[in-house]
Amino acid sequence: AHSDAGSELEEAEVKGKRKRGRPGRPPSATKKPRKSPADKGRSESGARGASRGRANGHPQQNGEGDPVTLFEVVKLGKSAMQSVVDDWIESYKQDRDIALLDLINFFIQCSGCRGTVRIEMFRNMQNAEIIRKMTEEFDEDSGDYPLTMPGPQWKKFRSNFCEFIGVLIRQCQYSIIYDEYMMDTVISLLTGLSDSQVRAFRHTSTLAAMKLMTALVNVALNLSIHQDNTQRQYEAERNKMIGKRANERLELLLQKRKELQENQDEIENMMNSIFKGIFVHRYRDAIAEIRAVCIEEIGVWMKMYSDAFLNDSYLKYVGWTLHDRQGEVRLKCLKALQSLYTNRELFPKLELFTNRFKDRIVSMTLDKEYDVAVEAIRLVTLILHGSEEALSNEDCENVYHLVYSAHRPVAVAAGEFLHKKLFSRHDPQAEEALAKRRGRNSPNGNLIRMLVLFFLESELHEHAAYLVDSLWESSQELLKDWECMTELLLEEPVQGEEAMSDRQESALIELMVCTIRQAAEAHPPVGRGTGKRVLTAKERKTQIDDRNKLTEHFIIALPMLLSKYSADAEKVANLLQIPQYFDLEIYSTGRMEKHLDALLKQIKFVVEKHVESDVLEACSKTYSILCSEEYTIQNRVDIAHSQLIDEFVDRFNHSVEDLLQEGEEADDDDIYNVLSTLKRLTSFHNAHDLTKWDLFSNCYRLLRTGIEHGAMPEQIVVQALQCSHYSILWQLVKITEGSPSKVIIVTPTLSYSPNLDRTSAHVSGIKELARRFALTFGLDQIKTREAVATLHKDGIEFAFKYQNQKGQDYPPPNLAFLEVLSEFSSKLLRQDKKTVHSYLEKFLTEQMMERREDVWLPLISYRNSLVTGGEDDRMSVNSGSSSSKASSVRNKKGRPPLHKKRVEDESLEGSWLNRNENIHTPGTLQPPQLTSTVLRENTRQMGEQIQEHESEQGSEQDFLHNPQMQISWLGQQKLEDLNRKDRTGMNYMKGRTGVRHAVRGLMEDDAEPIFEDVMMSSRGQLEDMNEEFEDTMVIDLPPSRNRRERAELRPDFFDSAAIIEDDSGFGMPMF
To answer: Compositionally biased, Basic residues: which spans (predicted)?
Structure first.
């Protein structure tokens, strides 16, 4: 162990000041002088061939155009990084300056700078002057640089960039990094670049420096290990007897130990330069990405070399940055800490940090950034796993309630915490003994009881599905132990075991049903997630296995559970949800028909016993599921269902007769008999077609009696109305299941009255009938679209079928019917109103359009009904959302060009037409496909439409005359209208083209500024930066010193006051 690493590093810094130059300053007198140009003359010519074609600082390429600069090679990533580094090392051995110049330009180019450092600049100019020169040559047209550019190529570049630095140090660790030249030059350059106001320089150099530091930490760790091994060998040799001791070996070991110590001092000096010259300034940079890089790498150092770095001198930076205002940086802090808390051996070194920053970490479980909250919960879970005493009950409760979060990743992370806290068993012997038991005495028995208690104490009973979903990934074995759950419910407690209360049993049943649903459906409950995702093959297999398992178990257990809890409405209603998740084939394949009979018997008993609507509806739904025609058990269930309905209908009929005969003398028993049977029948009528039992007749009698005599109880009236409502709906279903021609019952009625007078009672009656009939079409305009359009078509033809014998100046005799037809205009889609209006105009003459007399009011009224709402109606075939979005965009951006609006209108009008490939007859309407290829083609630029106009016309004609595509009347009208508008649009676009090009020239993009105000070393700017940190713990951050002064940092640790009053801190010195 390298226990005194801190003191050694501090001593090394003192030595380093005497023996080697500090980056950013001129080389000291003891530093090896650079070769003069005359001395380099002989080696330069040979080195240039190995320095990747760089002559005088300019990148060169061979005749084939292969990449020859370090930047190009690393960016393409085609060569193995070790071979790239080996080539550079070879060039460095031939000429250090030329090779270093290549490396310097590598960092400059990786920053996105177009400038190039020349050899004379490298030899004669200071770093600050070089950087200033490169800043002037920076590309000001764009704010992007390689590290921020999007796309897989640049993402790979970042990886290659980091790998190159790591391999470079690894390959140079035995000699070159100790030559007091290469590392001094690189660190000095990176320190200067990290001070730049150019974000690209600052970001790239900071990333390079942090990766360089990580590589040096790895070298320091290896040196420490070699030192320890050498020391042990030396001690073992020295402890031998004098006669057996090898003095030469002792001298070699001493020499090796001395050499390793010198190398260690050198490495520690380099790390001090990077840490104090770059890290302590850039971890508080104004740019979040730069702060994140620093925090990510310090976490790597603490994990890699914990003896030297895992102390409060370095942990404080992570703790302070937990308050960063950017979620990205807070996330890096938590990730860094997770890597430390994963290793339980490091917990003693983290104890002080945990006590200081635990409250902040727990509060971050409620972070506004969900990703941060998830990682905070995982970190708290790791802290709990390492030491349960570290978290108080209040801390745990703050995490517990997050299992009910609507955001699933947060809830799942909280579920893992809950599992660790409540359900993890830590006694191996007890686990082994309990594992042999099954059922209620199994290890899961007590855990299920604990889960029930937690659920009840949380007082969020309506969210049982959320709790189950949160625990599903971490506690799936427990939640699928349905055998244990049913035994807890069915069996009596053993001696000494406390029985479950009624409230606990209800909670367990509710949780059990939720686990069944989660296993059978294999997706989160409503409100968790964005929708159903496609299951993988493994998940699909698990789902099938779970469904088979639960079906086989509950086919047997459910009748027994219903029998025990038949008197409890809440429990029965929950238990009756289970059959919907069965694989009903198992009743037949498993020869379990007797259990089906037992279930049907219990359901019948429940129906006879309860009148609560929840229970009755659950029974009705269960019968509906079991009666599915695709299963062989359908006949058996249908017979039981019919017998049950027969029995209750017979009771209902008799009880109604008794009630009506008694009249005002009816007692409470008579009323109860009618009400209870009617409630049961109404609940069943909701999901089953009971029209053959003619419940409507007796319901009508009850309602008529109540109207005539006014003595009918309100509850009976409500149930009778509800039952009558269901009877009418089932009758309508039978009617509407036919073709649309059967739906349209208004138009045939008119054939009996060829001459209509709008003032006559006959027309008024038909109009009232039409108004009521229009209400039966419902709100689903897509489903009734073709039927309504056909009704308008037939109605228009009927209205203009006969001409007035007095002449064309008089209205057609049936024109009054248009007033009736206007009752159905609201059922037309917006684009269909235009189509119907166009069809109407075909029957009109110019004289008709200009007439305003009273006799022409039906025509005026009907035309207005087709125009009114035509532009505002958002109920389009695109389900309304696309129209609304398009409208909002237009409102925000101002009025669109006329030609653009024309294109949008044509796309909407042609949308139904373009979907008619799936329409064969008007009676079998299918929902439109919202991803229609033709619809997307219609939204292209008008320029493309003009070029492809002739081919589109051909395709439309093919569509019309293709016998396999029988287009409806509505589609034909839209085809004609679309062709006419296309011709108009072509002519219009020719005149708009020049205007569009003129406007385009006036538009320019604002370039993103490259230079930004960055937090420097002055106290005033530091105070400004402090405002950006949400430091709720009032931590006084130590001010960053001017990096040019290179003043040694004090061991300030967590309390800034200790910086002034106490230099000893915790007795853990820094480098």
So the answer is: 890-901
Residue with tokens 């360089």: 212
Rounded to the nearest 10 degrees, the angle between the axes of helix 464-471 and helix 502-521 is 60
Distance CA 978, CA 100 (A): 70
Q: Which residues, at least 6 apart from 959, have a Cβ–Cβ distance to it below 8 Å?
A: 916, 917, 965, 967, 975
Give me the half-sphere count of Cα atoms (radius 13 Å) on the Cβ side of residue 1070: 18
Contacts of 566 (CB under 8 A, 6+ apart): 572, 602, 605, 606, 609
Confidence band of 786 (pLDDT split at 50, 70, 90): confident
What is the average per-residue pLDDT within 939-959?
A: 38
CA distance 787 to 802: 24
In this prediction, residue 498 has a pLDDT band, given cuts at 50, 70 and 90, of confident
> b vs e for 314-337, b when ≥16 Cβ sit within 10 Å of the residue's Cβ?
bbbbbbbbbbbebbebbbbbbbbb
How many Å apart are CA 153 and CA 149, to the nearest integer? 9
Sign of the alpha-carbon torsion through 859, 864, 865, 871: positive
More reliable by pLDDT, 404 or 666: 404
Give, rounded to a whole angstrom, the gap between the first and last alpha carbons of the chain: 17
Residue 111 DSSP code: T
Q: How many CB atoms lie within 10 A of CB 80?
A: 10
How far, rounded to the nearest angstrom, does the alpha carbon of residue 809 sit from its chain's CA centroid? Answer: 67
Compute the C-alpha angle 361/364/369, nearest 5°.
145
* Alpha-carbon torsion angle 508, 514, 518, 519, nearest 10: 50
Q: Which of 134-148, 877-891, 977-991 has the lowest mean pLDDT?
A: 877-891
Q: Can you name the residues that pair with 198 across neighbouring β-strands? A: 1011
Q: What is the mean pLDDT of the chain?
A: 75
pLDDT band at 159 (very low <50, low <70, confident <90, very high): very high
Question: Phi and psi dihedrals of 1011, rounded to 5?
Answer: -80, 135
Residue 355 has pLDDT above 70, yes or no: yes
Q: Is the pLDDT of residue 153 over 60?
A: yes
pLDDT exceeds cutoff 60 at 255: yes
Residue 897 has what pLDDT? Answer: 41
CA 975 to CA 1012: how far, in whole Å? 58
pTM, rounded to two decimals: 0.65
579 contacts 599 by C-beta, under 8 angstroms: yes
Rounded CA-CA distance 266/183 in Å is 10
12: exposed, middle or buried (Cβ count in 10 Å: 0-12, 13-18, 19+): buried
**Count of CB atoms situated within 10 Å of the CB of 776:** 13
In terms of phi and psi (left: phi > 0; alpha: psi -120 to 50; beta: otherwise), the region of 56 is left
User: Are residues 613 and 572 in contact, defined by beta-carbon separation less than 8 angstroms?
Assistant: no
**For residue 58, which phi and psi values (nearest 5 degrees)?**
-100, 130
Contacts 24+ apart (CB under 8 A), 97-102: 97/34, 97/35, 97/40, 97/122, 97/123, 98/44, 98/47, 98/48, 98/51, 98/54, 99/47, 99/51, 100/182, 100/185, 100/186, 101/51, 101/54, 101/57, 102/51, 102/52, 102/54, 102/69, 102/70
Which of 348-362, 551-565, 639-653, 852-866 has the weakest average pLDDT? 852-866
pLDDT of residue 70: 87
Rounded to whole angstroms, the Cα distance separating 428 from 423 reads 14
- Give 992-995 contacts, CB < 8 A, sequence gap 24+: 992/897, 992/898, 992/899, 993/943
Mean pLDDT of 188-213: 94
- Give the lowest-confidence range in 286-290, 470-474, 496-500: 496-500
Percent of the chain with pLDDT over 90: 44
